[in-house]
UniProtKB/TrEMBL annotation:
Domain Alpha-D-phosphohexomutase C-terminal, residue spans: 395-453
PANTHER family cross-referenced by the UniProt entry: PHOSPHOGLUCOMUTASE (ALPHA-D-GLUCOSE-1,6-BISPHOSPHATE-DEPENDENT), PHOSPHOHEXOSE MUTASE
Protein name: Phosphoglucosamine mutase
Annotated gene: glmM
Keywords for this protein: Isomerase, Magnesium, Metal-binding, Phosphoprotein
Superkingdom of this protein's organism: Bacteria
Chain ranges of the Alpha-D-phosphohexomutase alpha/beta/alpha domain: 8-141, 173-263, 270-374
Keyword field contains Magnesium: yes
Gene Ontology molecular function terms on file: magnesium ion binding; phosphoglucosamine mutase activity; phosphomannomutase activity
Protein backbone atom coordinates (compact mmCIF):
# COMPACT_ATOMS: atom_id res chain seq x y z
CA UNK A 1 0.00 0.00 0.00
CA UNK A 2 1.38 3.38 -0.89
CA UNK A 3 0.77 7.10 -1.43
CA UNK A 4 2.53 8.94 -4.24
CA UNK A 5 2.60 12.74 -4.10
CA UNK A 6 3.80 14.29 -7.34
CA UNK A 7 3.43 17.47 -9.38
CA UNK A 8 0.71 15.73 -11.40
CA UNK A 9 -1.48 15.07 -8.35
CA UNK A 10 -1.84 12.58 -5.54
CA UNK A 11 -2.26 8.84 -6.15
CA UNK A 12 -2.55 5.98 -3.72
CA UNK A 13 -4.29 2.86 -2.48
CA UNK A 14 -7.54 3.06 -0.58
CA UNK A 15 -7.52 2.31 3.16
CA UNK A 16 -4.67 2.08 5.63
CA UNK A 17 -2.79 4.80 7.45
CA UNK A 18 -3.13 8.56 6.91
CA UNK A 19 -0.15 9.88 4.96
CA UNK A 20 0.77 6.42 3.74
CA UNK A 21 -2.32 5.62 1.64
CA UNK A 22 -5.08 7.56 -0.08
CA UNK A 23 -7.34 7.87 2.97
CA UNK A 24 -10.31 10.26 3.30
CA UNK A 25 -8.04 12.58 5.30
CA UNK A 26 -5.49 12.69 2.47
CA UNK A 27 -8.19 13.28 -0.18
CA UNK A 28 -9.57 16.23 1.80
CA UNK A 29 -6.11 17.64 2.50
CA UNK A 30 -4.99 17.71 -1.11
CA UNK A 31 -8.34 18.90 -2.46
CA UNK A 32 -8.13 21.76 0.04
CA UNK A 33 -4.56 22.55 -1.03
CA UNK A 34 -5.65 22.64 -4.69
CA UNK A 35 -8.62 24.88 -3.91
CA UNK A 36 -6.45 27.17 -1.82
CA UNK A 37 -3.88 27.43 -4.60
CA UNK A 38 -6.61 28.13 -7.15
CA UNK A 39 -8.03 31.00 -5.10
CA UNK A 40 -4.54 32.46 -4.62
CA UNK A 41 -4.11 32.72 -8.41
CA UNK A 42 -7.29 34.71 -9.01
CA UNK A 43 -8.79 37.89 -7.62
CA UNK A 44 -12.53 37.32 -7.96
CA UNK A 45 -15.68 36.63 -5.99
CA UNK A 46 -16.87 33.34 -7.46
CA UNK A 47 -14.77 30.28 -8.21
CA UNK A 48 -15.82 27.20 -10.16
CA UNK A 49 -14.24 23.75 -10.49
CA UNK A 50 -15.40 20.82 -12.66
CA UNK A 51 -15.16 17.38 -11.01
CA UNK A 52 -15.65 13.96 -12.64
CA UNK A 53 -14.61 10.39 -11.96
CA UNK A 54 -14.09 7.01 -13.54
CA UNK A 55 -16.13 4.02 -12.32
CA UNK A 56 -13.70 2.56 -9.81
CA UNK A 57 -15.27 1.36 -6.54
CA UNK A 58 -13.86 4.14 -4.36
CA UNK A 59 -14.79 6.88 -6.83
CA UNK A 60 -18.07 8.05 -5.31
CA UNK A 61 -16.57 8.27 -1.81
CA UNK A 62 -13.50 10.20 -2.97
CA UNK A 63 -15.55 12.48 -5.20
CA UNK A 64 -17.93 13.44 -2.39
CA UNK A 65 -15.00 14.20 -0.10
CA UNK A 66 -13.30 16.33 -2.76
CA UNK A 67 -16.41 18.22 -3.84
CA UNK A 68 -17.49 19.09 -0.32
CA UNK A 69 -13.98 20.19 0.57
CA UNK A 70 -14.15 22.65 -2.32
CA UNK A 71 -17.59 23.76 -1.15
CA UNK A 72 -16.04 24.44 2.26
CA UNK A 73 -13.54 26.73 0.54
CA UNK A 74 -16.36 28.72 -1.07
CA UNK A 75 -15.81 27.15 -4.50
CA UNK A 76 -18.77 26.17 -6.69
CA UNK A 77 -18.54 22.65 -8.14
CA UNK A 78 -19.89 21.27 -11.42
CA UNK A 79 -20.37 17.54 -10.74
CA UNK A 80 -20.06 15.45 -13.92
CA UNK A 81 -20.46 12.18 -12.01
CA UNK A 82 -19.26 9.22 -14.07
CA UNK A 83 -17.11 10.73 -16.79
CA UNK A 84 -13.80 10.36 -18.62
CA UNK A 85 -10.55 12.25 -18.19
CA UNK A 86 -10.79 13.92 -21.63
CA UNK A 87 -14.46 14.78 -21.01
CA UNK A 88 -13.55 16.68 -17.84
CA UNK A 89 -10.74 18.41 -19.75
CA UNK A 90 -13.21 19.50 -22.44
CA UNK A 91 -15.80 20.58 -19.86
CA UNK A 92 -13.55 22.99 -17.94
CA UNK A 93 -13.29 25.67 -20.66
CA UNK A 94 -16.86 25.03 -21.82
CA UNK A 95 -18.03 25.79 -18.27
CA UNK A 96 -15.68 28.81 -18.04
CA UNK A 97 -14.40 27.12 -14.88
CA UNK A 98 -11.22 27.97 -13.01
CA UNK A 99 -9.99 24.39 -12.93
CA UNK A 100 -10.91 20.73 -12.76
CA UNK A 101 -10.28 17.56 -10.80
CA UNK A 102 -10.52 14.04 -12.20
CA UNK A 103 -10.82 11.17 -9.72
CA UNK A 104 -9.05 8.30 -11.43
CA UNK A 105 -5.94 6.19 -11.09
CA UNK A 106 -5.92 5.62 -14.84
CA UNK A 107 -4.52 2.14 -15.62
CA UNK A 108 -3.81 1.18 -11.98
CA UNK A 109 -5.78 -1.72 -10.41
CA UNK A 110 -9.05 -1.18 -8.55
CA UNK A 111 -7.52 -0.55 -5.10
CA UNK A 112 -5.92 2.66 -6.41
CA UNK A 113 -7.41 6.11 -6.91
CA UNK A 114 -6.02 9.58 -7.53
CA UNK A 115 -6.72 13.27 -7.82
CA UNK A 116 -5.63 14.60 -11.23
CA UNK A 117 -5.53 18.40 -11.25
CA UNK A 118 -6.37 20.76 -14.15
CA UNK A 119 -6.00 24.47 -14.84
CA UNK A 120 -8.59 26.81 -16.40
CA UNK A 121 -7.71 25.52 -19.89
CA UNK A 122 -8.55 21.97 -18.87
CA UNK A 123 -4.88 21.01 -19.04
CA UNK A 124 -2.71 19.38 -16.40
CA UNK A 125 -0.81 21.69 -14.06
CA UNK A 126 2.86 22.30 -14.71
CA UNK A 127 5.66 21.37 -12.33
CA UNK A 128 5.83 24.73 -10.57
CA UNK A 129 2.09 24.76 -9.91
CA UNK A 130 2.12 21.17 -8.65
CA UNK A 131 5.00 21.88 -6.29
CA UNK A 132 3.15 24.85 -4.81
CA UNK A 133 0.09 22.71 -4.09
CA UNK A 134 2.26 20.11 -2.36
CA UNK A 135 3.82 22.89 -0.25
CA UNK A 136 0.39 24.22 0.75
CA UNK A 137 -0.72 20.71 1.75
CA UNK A 138 2.38 20.02 3.84
CA UNK A 139 2.19 23.40 5.60
CA UNK A 140 -1.60 23.12 6.24
CA UNK A 141 -2.06 26.62 4.82
CA UNK A 142 -5.78 26.22 4.09
CA UNK A 143 -8.42 28.67 5.30
CA UNK A 144 -12.07 27.71 4.84
CA UNK A 145 -15.09 29.92 4.17
CA UNK A 146 -17.67 31.09 6.67
CA UNK A 147 -21.18 29.67 6.46
CA UNK A 148 -22.66 32.44 4.30
CA UNK A 149 -19.96 31.99 1.66
CA UNK A 150 -19.94 28.23 1.07
CA UNK A 151 -19.92 26.95 -2.49
CA UNK A 152 -22.67 24.97 -4.19
CA UNK A 153 -22.68 21.71 -6.15
CA UNK A 154 -24.47 21.59 -9.53
CA UNK A 155 -24.93 18.25 -11.31
CA UNK A 156 -24.46 18.10 -15.09
CA UNK A 157 -24.74 14.74 -16.86
CA UNK A 158 -24.59 16.15 -20.39
CA UNK A 159 -20.87 16.39 -20.95
CA UNK A 160 -20.15 12.97 -22.49
CA UNK A 161 -22.76 13.87 -25.13
CA UNK A 162 -21.27 17.35 -25.53
CA UNK A 163 -17.77 15.87 -25.81
CA UNK A 164 -18.98 13.54 -28.58
CA UNK A 165 -20.59 16.54 -30.32
CA UNK A 166 -17.22 18.31 -30.32
CA UNK A 167 -15.46 15.23 -31.75
CA UNK A 168 -18.02 14.80 -34.54
CA UNK A 169 -17.74 18.48 -35.46
CA UNK A 170 -13.98 18.22 -36.15
CA UNK A 171 -13.14 18.87 -39.78
CA UNK A 172 -11.04 15.71 -40.19
CA UNK A 173 -13.63 13.33 -38.75
CA UNK A 174 -15.22 11.91 -41.90
CA UNK A 175 -18.63 11.00 -40.50
CA UNK A 176 -20.16 10.17 -43.90
CA UNK A 177 -17.37 7.80 -44.92
CA UNK A 178 -17.51 6.04 -41.55
CA UNK A 179 -21.28 5.58 -41.78
CA UNK A 180 -20.98 4.26 -45.33
CA UNK A 181 -18.38 1.68 -44.24
CA UNK A 182 -20.86 0.02 -41.84
CA UNK A 183 -18.20 -1.12 -39.40
CA UNK A 184 -18.81 -3.62 -36.60
CA UNK A 185 -16.52 -3.12 -33.59
CA UNK A 186 -16.09 -4.91 -30.25
CA UNK A 187 -15.52 -2.54 -27.31
CA UNK A 188 -13.80 -3.58 -24.06
CA UNK A 189 -14.69 -0.82 -21.57
CA UNK A 190 -13.03 -2.62 -18.61
CA UNK A 191 -16.28 -1.99 -16.66
CA UNK A 192 -15.54 1.71 -16.39
CA UNK A 193 -16.66 4.87 -18.13
CA UNK A 194 -15.26 3.88 -21.51
CA UNK A 195 -18.17 1.46 -21.59
CA UNK A 196 -20.47 4.48 -21.60
CA UNK A 197 -18.62 6.88 -23.89
CA UNK A 198 -17.11 4.69 -26.63
CA UNK A 199 -20.29 2.73 -27.62
CA UNK A 200 -22.25 5.99 -27.71
CA UNK A 201 -19.63 7.58 -29.97
CA UNK A 202 -19.69 4.54 -32.27
CA UNK A 203 -23.48 4.52 -32.52
CA UNK A 204 -23.50 8.18 -33.51
CA UNK A 205 -20.95 7.36 -36.21
CA UNK A 206 -23.13 4.58 -37.59
CA UNK A 207 -20.83 1.87 -36.26
CA UNK A 208 -22.33 -1.27 -34.68
CA UNK A 209 -20.79 -1.68 -31.21
CA UNK A 210 -20.50 -5.10 -29.57
CA UNK A 211 -20.13 -4.45 -25.85
CA UNK A 212 -17.65 -6.40 -23.73
CA UNK A 213 -17.23 -5.37 -20.08
CA UNK A 214 -19.08 -2.09 -20.62
CA UNK A 215 -21.04 -2.07 -17.31
CA UNK A 216 -19.46 0.75 -15.22
CA UNK A 217 -19.27 -1.12 -11.91
CA UNK A 218 -15.58 -0.50 -11.24
CA UNK A 219 -14.99 -4.25 -10.90
CA UNK A 220 -12.30 -4.57 -13.55
CA UNK A 221 -12.57 -8.00 -15.25
CA UNK A 222 -8.85 -8.04 -16.02
CA UNK A 223 -5.77 -5.92 -15.38
CA UNK A 224 -6.95 -2.51 -16.66
CA UNK A 225 -3.72 -1.66 -18.48
CA UNK A 226 -4.54 -2.22 -22.19
CA UNK A 227 -1.74 -4.69 -22.96
CA UNK A 228 -1.94 -7.85 -25.08
CA UNK A 229 -1.65 -10.28 -22.17
CA UNK A 230 -4.77 -8.78 -20.54
CA UNK A 231 -7.00 -8.88 -23.62
CA UNK A 232 -7.64 -12.54 -24.47
CA UNK A 233 -11.41 -12.10 -24.06
CA UNK A 234 -11.44 -9.20 -26.50
CA UNK A 235 -9.39 -11.19 -29.00
CA UNK A 236 -11.82 -14.10 -28.84
CA UNK A 237 -14.87 -11.84 -29.12
CA UNK A 238 -13.54 -10.02 -32.21
CA UNK A 239 -13.09 -13.33 -34.02
CA UNK A 240 -16.37 -14.81 -32.78
CA UNK A 241 -18.39 -11.73 -33.84
CA UNK A 242 -16.52 -11.42 -37.15
CA UNK A 243 -15.96 -7.80 -36.22
CA UNK A 244 -13.87 -5.37 -38.26
CA UNK A 245 -11.69 -4.72 -35.22
CA UNK A 246 -11.66 -4.32 -31.45
CA UNK A 247 -11.22 -1.30 -29.20
CA UNK A 248 -9.97 -1.26 -25.60
CA UNK A 249 -9.54 1.75 -23.34
CA UNK A 250 -8.24 2.16 -19.80
CA UNK A 251 -10.61 3.08 -16.93
CA UNK A 252 -10.49 6.86 -17.51
CA UNK A 253 -10.46 6.62 -21.33
CA UNK A 254 -7.25 8.50 -22.12
CA UNK A 255 -5.41 5.40 -23.41
CA UNK A 256 -6.56 3.57 -26.53
CA UNK A 257 -5.53 0.34 -28.22
CA UNK A 258 -6.89 -1.55 -31.21
CA UNK A 259 -7.10 -5.23 -32.14
CA UNK A 260 -7.31 -6.31 -35.78
CA UNK A 261 -10.00 -8.47 -37.36
CA UNK A 262 -7.96 -11.60 -36.59
CA UNK A 263 -7.83 -10.87 -32.86
CA UNK A 264 -4.20 -9.72 -33.06
CA UNK A 265 -2.99 -6.53 -31.38
CA UNK A 266 -2.53 -3.56 -33.69
CA UNK A 267 0.03 -2.41 -31.12
CA UNK A 268 -0.76 0.37 -28.65
CA UNK A 269 2.32 2.24 -29.88
CA UNK A 270 0.72 2.30 -33.34
CA UNK A 271 -2.52 3.95 -32.17
CA UNK A 272 -0.76 7.32 -32.30
CA UNK A 273 1.16 6.37 -35.46
CA UNK A 274 -2.03 5.59 -37.41
CA UNK A 275 -3.91 8.67 -36.18
CA UNK A 276 -0.90 10.85 -36.97
CA UNK A 277 -0.63 9.32 -40.44
CA UNK A 278 -4.23 10.36 -41.12
CA UNK A 279 -3.92 13.87 -39.66
CA UNK A 280 -0.59 14.58 -41.39
CA UNK A 281 -2.00 13.45 -44.74
CA UNK A 282 -4.64 16.19 -44.42
CA UNK A 283 -2.76 18.87 -42.45
CA UNK A 284 1.03 18.49 -42.81
CA UNK A 285 3.02 19.59 -39.78
CA UNK A 286 5.10 18.48 -36.82
CA UNK A 287 4.55 15.82 -34.16
CA UNK A 288 5.66 15.16 -30.58
CA UNK A 289 5.64 12.08 -28.37
CA UNK A 290 7.52 11.17 -25.23
CA UNK A 291 10.93 9.53 -25.07
CA UNK A 292 9.47 6.11 -24.32
CA UNK A 293 7.44 6.05 -27.53
CA UNK A 294 8.16 4.21 -30.77
CA UNK A 295 10.41 5.50 -33.54
CA UNK A 296 7.54 4.69 -35.90
CA UNK A 297 5.99 8.13 -35.23
CA UNK A 298 9.20 9.79 -36.38
CA UNK A 299 9.12 7.69 -39.56
CA UNK A 300 5.53 8.58 -40.47
CA UNK A 301 6.10 12.27 -39.62
CA UNK A 302 9.12 12.50 -41.89
CA UNK A 303 7.20 10.67 -44.63
CA UNK A 304 4.75 13.58 -44.63
CA UNK A 305 7.53 16.21 -44.53
CA UNK A 306 7.19 17.14 -40.87
CA UNK A 307 9.58 17.22 -37.92
CA UNK A 308 9.37 14.91 -34.92
CA UNK A 309 10.50 15.85 -31.40
CA UNK A 310 10.60 13.79 -28.19
CA UNK A 311 9.69 15.15 -24.75
CA UNK A 312 10.15 13.89 -21.22
CA UNK A 313 7.53 11.36 -20.13
CA UNK A 314 4.32 12.89 -18.82
CA UNK A 315 1.38 14.48 -20.59
CA UNK A 316 2.22 17.99 -19.41
CA UNK A 317 5.70 17.66 -20.94
CA UNK A 318 4.31 16.42 -24.26
CA UNK A 319 1.81 19.28 -24.37
CA UNK A 320 4.47 21.88 -23.58
CA UNK A 321 6.68 20.68 -26.45
CA UNK A 322 3.69 20.38 -28.82
CA UNK A 323 2.85 24.03 -28.22
CA UNK A 324 6.47 25.08 -28.66
CA UNK A 325 6.86 23.14 -31.94
CA UNK A 326 3.33 23.86 -33.21
CA UNK A 327 2.64 20.12 -33.51
CA UNK A 328 -0.61 19.23 -35.30
CA UNK A 329 -0.88 15.95 -33.39
CA UNK A 330 1.06 14.25 -30.63
CA UNK A 331 0.72 12.09 -27.58
CA UNK A 332 2.24 9.13 -25.84
CA UNK A 333 3.08 5.68 -27.12
CA UNK A 334 0.86 4.08 -24.51
CA UNK A 335 -2.13 4.83 -26.75
CA UNK A 336 -2.63 8.46 -25.77
CA UNK A 337 -3.77 10.75 -28.64
CA UNK A 338 -3.48 14.53 -28.24
CA UNK A 339 -5.20 16.44 -31.03
CA UNK A 340 -4.95 20.21 -30.37
CA UNK A 341 -7.79 21.02 -32.76
CA UNK A 342 -10.09 19.92 -29.92
CA UNK A 343 -7.94 20.19 -26.76
CA UNK A 344 -4.49 19.54 -25.34
CA UNK A 345 -5.18 16.26 -23.57
CA UNK A 346 -5.00 12.53 -24.29
CA UNK A 347 -8.39 11.61 -25.71
CA UNK A 348 -9.54 8.14 -26.77
CA UNK A 349 -12.75 9.47 -28.29
CA UNK A 350 -10.79 11.64 -30.71
CA UNK A 351 -8.46 8.71 -31.40
CA UNK A 352 -11.33 6.38 -32.27
CA UNK A 353 -12.91 8.94 -34.62
CA UNK A 354 -9.63 9.67 -36.43
CA UNK A 355 -8.78 5.96 -36.75
CA UNK A 356 -12.23 5.17 -38.16
CA UNK A 357 -11.86 8.03 -40.66
CA UNK A 358 -8.50 6.66 -41.81
CA UNK A 359 -9.85 3.13 -42.12
CA UNK A 360 -12.98 4.24 -43.99
CA UNK A 361 -11.04 6.34 -46.49
CA UNK A 362 -8.36 3.71 -47.13
CA UNK A 363 -10.96 0.93 -47.46
CA UNK A 364 -8.62 -1.69 -46.04
CA UNK A 365 -8.63 -4.13 -43.15
CA UNK A 366 -6.91 -3.23 -39.89
CA UNK A 367 -4.32 -5.98 -40.40
CA UNK A 368 -3.53 -4.55 -43.86
CA UNK A 369 -3.20 -1.03 -42.45
CA UNK A 370 -0.73 -2.23 -39.83
CA UNK A 371 1.53 -3.66 -42.55
CA UNK A 372 1.91 -0.20 -44.10
CA UNK A 373 3.97 0.98 -41.08
CA UNK A 374 7.55 0.15 -40.18
CA UNK A 375 7.58 -2.70 -37.68
CA UNK A 376 9.25 -1.96 -34.39
CA UNK A 377 8.84 -4.12 -31.31
CA UNK A 378 8.85 -2.88 -27.73
CA UNK A 379 9.47 -4.50 -24.39
CA UNK A 380 8.02 -2.77 -21.32
CA UNK A 381 9.35 -4.17 -18.07
CA UNK A 382 9.79 -2.90 -14.53
CA UNK A 383 11.69 -3.40 -11.30
CA UNK A 384 9.82 -3.00 -8.02
CA UNK A 385 11.46 -0.41 -5.79
CA UNK A 386 12.54 -1.12 -2.23
CA UNK A 387 13.99 1.36 0.30
CA UNK A 388 17.48 -0.03 -0.37
CA UNK A 389 17.43 0.84 -4.07
CA UNK A 390 19.01 4.21 -4.93
CA UNK A 391 17.46 5.06 -8.29
CA UNK A 392 19.56 8.17 -8.90
CA UNK A 393 22.78 6.22 -8.31
CA UNK A 394 21.64 3.46 -10.66
CA UNK A 395 20.81 5.90 -13.46
CA UNK A 396 24.13 7.70 -12.97
CA UNK A 397 25.97 4.39 -13.21
CA UNK A 398 24.15 3.49 -16.44
CA UNK A 399 24.95 6.91 -17.91
CA UNK A 400 28.64 6.47 -17.12
CA UNK A 401 28.72 2.91 -18.43
CA UNK A 402 27.30 3.98 -21.82
CA UNK A 403 28.90 7.42 -22.06
CA UNK A 404 30.09 6.71 -25.63
CA UNK A 405 26.53 6.14 -26.89
CA UNK A 406 23.84 8.70 -27.81
CA UNK A 407 22.39 9.49 -24.37
CA UNK A 408 19.47 11.75 -23.35
CA UNK A 409 18.95 12.58 -19.66
CA UNK A 410 15.96 14.95 -19.59
CA UNK A 411 13.91 12.11 -18.07
CA UNK A 412 15.90 9.28 -16.56
CA UNK A 413 18.43 7.86 -19.01
CA UNK A 414 17.66 6.99 -22.63
CA UNK A 415 20.38 5.28 -24.65
CA UNK A 416 19.91 5.36 -28.43
CA UNK A 417 21.87 2.59 -30.11
CA UNK A 418 21.97 2.51 -33.95
CA UNK A 419 19.39 -0.30 -34.26
CA UNK A 420 17.51 -0.06 -30.95
CA UNK A 421 17.11 1.94 -27.75
CA UNK A 422 16.53 1.57 -24.01
CA UNK A 423 14.88 4.07 -21.66
CA UNK A 424 15.34 3.75 -17.89
CA UNK A 425 13.30 5.96 -15.57
CA UNK A 426 11.58 6.09 -12.21
CA UNK A 427 7.78 5.98 -12.60
CA UNK A 428 5.66 8.98 -11.58
CA UNK A 429 2.67 6.76 -10.83
CA UNK A 430 4.03 3.56 -9.27
CA UNK A 431 6.98 2.65 -6.97
CA UNK A 432 8.96 1.09 -9.84
CA UNK A 433 11.80 1.64 -12.29
CA UNK A 434 10.53 1.32 -15.86
CA UNK A 435 12.72 -0.36 -18.48
CA UNK A 436 11.44 0.29 -22.02
CA UNK A 437 13.25 -0.99 -25.08
CA UNK A 438 12.56 -1.00 -28.81
CA UNK A 439 14.13 -3.06 -31.59
CA UNK A 440 13.39 -4.65 -34.97
CA UNK A 441 12.18 -7.90 -33.38
CA UNK A 442 10.39 -8.83 -30.16
CA UNK A 443 13.16 -11.22 -29.18
CA UNK A 444 15.78 -8.49 -29.55
CA UNK A 445 13.68 -6.00 -27.54
CA UNK A 446 13.09 -8.52 -24.73
CA UNK A 447 16.74 -9.57 -24.66
CA UNK A 448 17.85 -5.94 -24.45
CA UNK A 449 15.43 -5.29 -21.57
CA UNK A 450 16.55 -8.40 -19.67
CA UNK A 451 20.17 -7.39 -20.16
CA UNK A 452 19.58 -3.98 -18.59
CA UNK A 453 17.55 -5.44 -15.73
CA UNK A 454 20.52 -7.69 -14.94
CA UNK A 455 22.90 -4.72 -15.15
CA UNK A 456 20.68 -2.64 -12.84
CA UNK A 457 20.47 -5.47 -10.32
CA UNK A 458 24.25 -5.86 -10.34
CA UNK A 459 24.75 -2.13 -9.79
CA UNK A 460 22.18 -1.93 -6.98
CA UNK A 461 23.78 -4.70 -4.89
Amino acid sequence: MTLIKSISGIRGTIGGQVGENLTPIDAVKFAAAYGTWLKSQLNKENYKVVVGRDARISGEMIQNLVMNTLVGLGIHVVDLGLSTTPTVEVAVPMEHADGGIILTASHNPKQWNALKLLNAKGEFLNGTEGEKILEIAEADEMEFSEVDFLGKITRNDAYIDLHIDEVLNLGLVNVDAIKDAKFKVVVDGVNSTGGIAIPELLERLGVEPVKLYCDPTGHFPHNPEPLKEHLTDLSEMVVKERADFGIVVDPDVDRLAFMDENGEMFGEEYTLVACADYVLSKTPGNTVSNMSSSRALRDVTEKHGGTYEASAVGEVNVVELMKKNKAVIGGEGNGGIIYPELHYGRDSLVGVALFLSLLAEKEMKVSELRKTYTSYFMSKKKIQLTPEINVDAILEAMKSRYANENITTIDGVKIDFPENWVHLRKSNTEPIIRIYTEAKSQEEADTLADRFIAEIESVSK
